[in-house]
Amino acid sequence: MNENTLASKREFTSVVQEVKTVLTTARQNVATQVNNELLNTYWNIGRIICEHEQSDPERADYGKQTIKELSKALTQEFGKGFSRSNLQNMRQFYLTYKKCQTVSGKLSWSHYCELLSISDPDKRSFYEQEAVNSNWSVRELKRQIASSLFERLLLSKGDVNKEKVLTLAAKGNEIAQPEDIIRDPYVFEFLGLPEDKPFLESDLERALVQQIEKFLLELGRGFMFVGTQQRVTINNTHYYVDMVFYNKILRAYVLIELKTIKLTPEAAGQINMYLNYYANEVNDPDDNPPIGIILCSDKDSITAEYALGGLSNNIFASRYVLYMPNKDQLIAQVENVLKKWHKEDPDDGTFKK
Predict the structure, then answer these.
(1) Which of 108, 98, 122, 136 has its CA nearest to residue 170?
(2) Position 210 confidence tier, pLDDT thresholds 50, 70, 90
(3) How far apart are CA 165 and CA 175, in angstroms?
(4) 3-class DSSP state for residue 269?
(5) 187 vs 123, 147, 196, CA distance in Å?
(6) Between β-strands 223-234 and 237-247, what pairing exists: parallel, antiparallel or unpaired?
(7) Residue 186, strand partner residues
(8) pLDDT band, residue 65 (cuts 50/70/90)
(9) In angstroms, what CA-CA distances link 322 with 91, 153, 310?
């Protein structure tokens, strides 16, 4: 093949790629416009329903019947999409977002239907912000709500207070320091491992690698997978880090040690050695100090305090569970801490399910 033919082929490939880029961008723009128009339409339908109810106090008593009849009429005229439950969601959509401009076009109607199921405004706002920031699918949003991510993040940040609640609600989970990437517990229900049968650390590692995409979503934003069993050689002795990631937001390596037992001081010493090695031998000049996470089946606060206290490296211990946590228990735990700090009325509506 001569040089002219190669040049012509490269030129054609360039043209194809340019056209693909134009088409992809156009499709994305059209999809965004359609989604925005759909959200605006549903918001206005909700507005009309609410205004109809409010125009006559007696009509509000017959709201359910009105929506039932409206559903029949719209379905007959426009087809699917106007069931009673969907019209109820449109009504609630308007009541929740009184200004249409506050609705994010980055989320779909299906996203908002999930968000509307959350009655507490702070919690709902958090999941809305995180869905936008992390580009969650509807399926992932449902999983994060079911796994009580809001409560887990609050409890992972130490002493819970109203300011942290409001910050999460307004901005989602901001990642500015190592503590911000920690969750406790981590939820690995997607692994399908049996709760009542013992398994090895290698089994847990293998299962996490096989479900690496889901594991990355559970870890949070900014994580990139580097590898497993990464070798650390000190004085001609080889050691191996269970799992290594890089967080591009913090610009830091994240080393994870897996333990199928309760947290021990030995685990802290082990990962501290790995972090020292990475800081001196692996880090590039613009990398921040590496972060260590010990994922264990259980821990107690006293052992964690003494094992991790006084270390110069960023080391955290978190539990993992193989099932969805009890939402009621987590909500009650957060409420109890908030009451302790703010002496809030137990019936103030905080963290309604």
Answers:
(1) 122
(2) very high
(3) 15
(4) helix
(5) 19, 7, 16
(6) antiparallel
(7) 320
(8) confident
(9) 38, 18, 31
Length of the chain: 353
Identify the H or E element spanning 173.
none
pLDDT tens readout for residues 182-207: 998 999 999 988 877 888 999 999 99
The model's pTM: 0.83
Cα–Cα distance measured from residue 92 to residue 46, given in angstroms and rounded to the nearest whole number: 7
Rounded to the nearest 10 degrees, what angle do helices 3-54 and 63-78 cross at?
140
pLDDT of residue 91: 93
* Measured CA angle at 123 (ends 117, 128), to 5 deg: 75
For the chain, helix (H) and strand (E) counts, in that order, are 14, 6
Residue 337, C-beta contacts closer than 8 angstroms, at least 6 positions apart? 155, 159, 160, 161
Percent of the chain at pLDDT exceeding 90: 57
Quick one: which of 297, 307, 310 has its CA closest to 268? 307
Rounded Cα distance between 64 and 77, Å, is 20
Tokens 């990139």 belong to residue: 224
The pLDDT score that the predictor gives to residue 287 is: 97
Would you place residue 342 in the very low, low, confident or very high pLDDT band (cuts 50, 70, 90)?
low
Residues β-bridged to residue 252 = 247
Q: For residue 194, give the nearest of 264, 267, 260 by alpha carbon.
A: 260
Q: How many CB atoms lie within 10 A of CB 86?
A: 19
Angle at 242 between CA 270 and CA 179, to 5 degrees: 70
Q: What is the DSSP string of 177-239?
A: SGGGG--SSEE-GGG---SSS---HHHHHHHHHHTHHHHHHHH-TTEEEEEEEEEEEETTEEE
- Sheet containing strand 252-258, strands side by side: 186-187, 314-321, 291-296, 252-258, 237-247, 223-234
In 3D, which of 166, 123, 121, 167 has the Cα closest to residue 141?
Answer: 123
Q: What angle do CA 245, 227, 233 make, to 5 degrees?
A: 95
